[in-house]
Amino acid sequence: MHEHVLHHILQQLRDAAHDAGRPVPRLLAVSKTQDETAVANLVLQGQDAFGENYVQEAAGKRAAMAATAAAGRALEWHLIGHLQSNKAAEAAALFDWVHTVDRPKLVAALARHRGADAPLNVLIQVNIDDEASKHGCRPDEVPALAAAIAAEPALRLRGLMVIPTPHAEPEQRRPSFRRAKALFDALAADHAGVDTLSMGMSDDFAIAIAEGATLVRIGTALFGARARPA
Ligand SMILES: *Cc1c(COP(=O)(O)O)cnc(C)c1O
Questions:
Q1: I want to staple 78 with a disulfide (CB 3.0 to 4.6 A). Which of 8, 51, 64, 135 is the partner?
Q2: Which of 1, 5, 13, 30 to mutate to test the pocket of ligand 1 (most atoms within 8 A of CB)?
Q3: Pocket test for ligand 1, best of 52, 80, 217 (most atoms within 8 A of CB)
Q4: The model's pTM
Q5: What is the DSSP string of 33-101?
């Protein structure tokens, strides 16, 4: 990838935030399926937060980054893919953030396998459009799940993550982003330290930012199309 791509995306994030009168969000570079060279390139340009969908793939990449020119840079690894409970131990040890906590069993499993000396940053994934096939808890389940997370010293509740129904027209996702922001504000009112609303991808991040995203997850627009689906 060329150097101007990261610069261009960061400029787009600033422009979208400025236009909407919102704070500039963090960029999470979604590196799933991308090779280590592509990740190292971004690290050398200053990007420090990466999103992965699979525990195994992230483990390999994280180890590879520790052994390259990028070594020594403090990187953050975020799990943004669905997490099965039987992978919770590995995920708790590997990631700095998990965006996809959506059930009490996962809260307990992650907490059990994480040391309280470096708490795991956790987002609750909400099924914001109530899609039958989707992961994420129902909006009305957020308060109880948040309380469960807040009670675990090994976990740090940071906010919410949503993936709206992928309507062909991104503008149709705006009401979902807006509902997510309202849920997020309610959560932040109840829990100190809630500061992250993870929403917006390559084709809709400007809309998500206008509606209050504090972190956007961008893959394709940064790296180009993925060679295989993930
Ligand atoms: C792949 C993925 C992204 C990035 O999507 P792009 O359209 O490539 O920007 C963001 N969030 C999640 C949960 C993903 O799985």
A1: 51
A2: 30
A3: 217
A4: 0.96
A5: T--HHHHHHHHHTT--EEEES-HHHHHHHHHHHHTSTTTTS--EEEE-S---GGGHHHHHHH-SEEEEE
